[in-house]
Amino acid sequence: MPGIEYRKPYKLDKKDKQIIRALFEDGRLSIAEISKKTQIRRDSVAYRLKKLQKEGVLTGFVPVLNPPSIGLPNISILLLRLKSTTEEEKQKFLKKLVANRYAVHIFGLIGKFDFYVSLVYKNTNHLNEIIKDIRGFIPNLIEDFDVYQVADEPKFEQMKDLV
């Protein structure tokens, strides 16, 4: 599933919002079920879904995993600052970072750090292994890093309140 893509904003109307809200309740709804739930004709629901995908408003329909239920009960935030480097070396590092299965969310930053990485992991030893692996992608490229253990998750953002 692609991440955030910057393009011209798409103006959602009332029907688009109804369809999206129905999908937030259950992303497995069929077009017929969405039609029934929203009182919007089937062909209109199908057309609007296709258009919302084409316009990049909806980027995919995926299951949401609960990491603790698959043996990854911990979350940490890893902030990384790279040494001055070439764009090619930075992209090579980023490609390896994205490929790390325990890095579940990555942001490029402007400021003191270059990257924000959410990591899921089993225990402290596992976290140390993950960080050691990341630091070894390109030796001596990481100038500094900070790690923060997530203690609570008061909001898991599905972005449903944006529509």
Description:
By secondary structure, the protein is α+β, with helices and mostly antiparallel strands. The protein has two domains: 14-54, Arc Repressor Mutant, subunit A (Orthogonal Bundle); 67-149, Alpha-Beta Plaits (2-Layer Sandwich). Helices cover 36% and strands 18% of the residues. It has five helices and four strands. β2 (103-108) and β3 form a beta hairpin. α1 (14-25) crosses α2 and α2 crosses α3. The radius of gyration is 20 Å and the shape is elongated. It starts with 13 loop residues before the first helix and ends in a 14-residue tail after the last strand. The model has no long low-confidence stretch (mean pLDDT 93).
Secondary-structure map:
Blueprint: H1 14-25, H2 31-38, H3 42-54, E1 74-82, H4 87-99, E2 103-108, E3 115-121, H5 124-135, E4 142-149
Antiparallel strand pairs: 1-3, 1-4, 2-3
Helix pairs in contact: 1-2, 2-3
Radius of gyration: 20 Å
Order of helices and strands: HHHEHEEHE
Can you tell me the CATH class of the largest domain?
Answer: Alpha Beta
The portion of residues assigned to helices is 25-40%
- Structural class, please? alpha+beta
- Our measurement of the CA-to-CA distance between the termini, rounded to an integer number of angstroms, reads 20 Å
| Tally of separate helices | 5
Major sheet details: 4 strands, antiparallel
**Global morphology:** elongated
Number of strands: 4
Q: Beta fraction of the residues?
A: 15-25%
Q: Would you tell me the overall average pLDDT? A: 93
Low-confidence stretches: none
By CATH, the topology of the largest domain is: Alpha-Beta Plaits
CATH architecture label name of the largest domain: 2-Layer Sandwich
Task: Provide the number of structural domains.
Answer: 2
How do the strands line up in the largest sheet? 2-3-1-4
